[in-house]
Amino acid sequence: MILGRKGFLNYLKALGGSNVVKIAPSNGSASESQATEKGLRVVCGTNTSYLPNEAWLTDKNRNGGNCQVRVSRNNAITPNLGSVELAEALARVIPFTEKGKEARPILQCVHFVQKDGKLTLIGCDGFRLAMISLDFEDGETSALIESSELSGLISALKRARRIRLSFEQKSDNEGGLISKWLVIDTEAISYKWRSVEGDFPDYNKVIPTEFTAQAHFDTRETLKACHSLSALWLDKENPIRITIDDSRVILETKEDRGKAIIEAETSGQGSIAVNGNFLSQAMKALGGMTELKVKDAKSPMLFSTDGYQILVMPMFMPESKAVAEAEAVAQEAEARAEAEAQTESEAETETKTEAKPKRKGRKKDKHPEPQPQTEPEEAVEPETQETREPVAVG
After folding, report:
1. Which residues, including other chains, have CB under 8 Å from residue 75's CB and lie 6 or more apart?
2. What angle do CA 360, 364, 366 make, to 5 degrees?
3. Are the CB atoms for 98 and 146 separated by under 8 Å?
4. Are 165 and 135 contacting, i.e. CB atoms less than 8 angstroms apart?
5. CA torsion sign, 151 to 156 to 158 to 163?
6. Is the torsion defined by CA of 285, 117, 153, 20 positive or negative?
7. Contact indicator for 245, 266 with CB cutoff of 8 Å
8. What is the pLDDT of residues 170-189, one digit of tens each?
């Protein structure tokens, strides 16, 4: 028979009178109307109840995941994963999935990917991405499971001795895929979830492959520094600038309110800003020693440790006063050097012009004497018959 999981759990919590609960099929142990239907008879102390088939089941969870409970203790399984190992992997990935009723359904899921002998679990909320890989069987498949359905599994897996994880799928008569399922078997319980329909974002495209700076440091010291710097602001999401320098990592808040220096093994130099709350959550999930890789101030930063990776998008943060003053001094010195270089270049050009040899040939006066200007001759009008004077003829 099938029961609603949450309703059945609340019912068991509400039972009183004894720590022993007896559950048996209702056939032959109930009234005639109850015995003819599929159901369970529950006895706990002085309480006796009859649970019908599909009790507490709603349309919302009817097609979702389910949990099968076996009463027999002789459920032999061949394990292919460590129970604690899988529980810790889920605990490191689920916090980085998107939350909220109006959130994107795909990003509310944990992406299980089986490929190249590895089982990779990925969680993403659009600003952060957590990814961890475990040794697994050969094969290639994937499934999208809602993170809210997996949260309660972590404590159960830590108590299980052996587990086996597998993927199932159903196809139609023409070979088309109808649905995918993720199955986790333990010695007492078998869990089964239906994969959400949709495609998970191609996260490999956003992971940088080239880096200009990297640092290896202790997350516990960094977490303490994050708490002290975040206490300076009421808003915990204020940016914190991370600067990788010579053998140290510097954490600074905006407006130069606070600064913390952490010893680290570094190579290269770089600076990037990150949401203070995101940084604290990443340090909690990583634990121990971690490695930070930075490409530039606009590309995602990558934290990694022992096959576990966290990718965090950067934030915009104005430069601190000290950095701004240093940049201004550097720009002024650069401008002065360019001006001096230009002056020297002009002086060299003039020197070369003066030392240029003169061409041989007739000397020409640089300043020729001015020639005297002649007055223009008066125009002589031609004589005509009217203007000619009479002459006496002897």
Report:
1. 185, 186, 187, 188
2. 120
3. no
4. no
5. negative
6. negative
7. yes
8. 877 776 777 899 999 988 88
The rounded distance, in Å, linking the Cα atoms of 182 and 86 is: 14
CA distances to 87, 117, 362 from 84, in Å: 5, 19, 104
Q: How far apart are CA 162 and CA 168, in angstroms?
A: 20
pLDDT digits (tens, 9 = 90+) for 335-386: 888 888 887 777 777 666 665 555 555 555 555 555 555 555 554 455 444 4
Strand boundaries in the chain, DSSP class E: 22-25, 39-44, 47-52, 66-69, 109-115, 118-124, 128-135, 141-146, 163-171, 177-186, 189-194, 213-218, 239-245, 248-253, 259-263, 265-267, 270-275, 289-294, 301-305, 308-312
Inform me whether the pLDDT recorded for 243 exceeds 90.
yes
DSSP assignment of 62-110 equals HTS-EEEEP--S-------B-HHHHHHHHHHHGGGS--STTS-TGGGEE
Distance between CA atoms of 145 and 180, rounded to whole angstroms?
10
What does the alpha-carbon distance between residue 193 and residue 110 come to, in Å, rounded to a whole number? 12
Q: How far apart are CA 144 and CA 196, in angstroms?
A: 5
DSSP H helical ranges for 231-275:
none
Of residues 312 and 326, more confidence is placed in 312
- How confident is the model over 26-34, as a mean pLDDT? 55
Sign of the Cα pseudo-torsion (364, 366, 367, 370, in order): positive
- The C-alpha angle 130, 151, 2, rounded to 5 degrees, equals 135
Q: How far is the C-alpha of 7 from the C-alpha of 51, rounded, in Å? A: 11
Return the domain boundaries, the chain. 5-62, 83-200, 211-317
pLDDT for residue 380: 47
SS3 311: strand
Identify the CATH number of the domain defined by range 211-317. 3.10.150.10
Whether the domain at 83-200 and the domain at 211-317 fall into the same CATH topology: yes
Sequential DSSP letters for 218-242: EHHHHHHHHHHHHTTSS-TT-EEEE
**What's the topology of domain 83-200?**
DNA Polymerase III; Chain A, domain 2 (3.10.150)
Per mean pLDDT, which range of 83-97, 151-165, 169-183, 204-218 is the poorest?
A: 169-183
Q: What SS3 state is found at 23?
A: strand
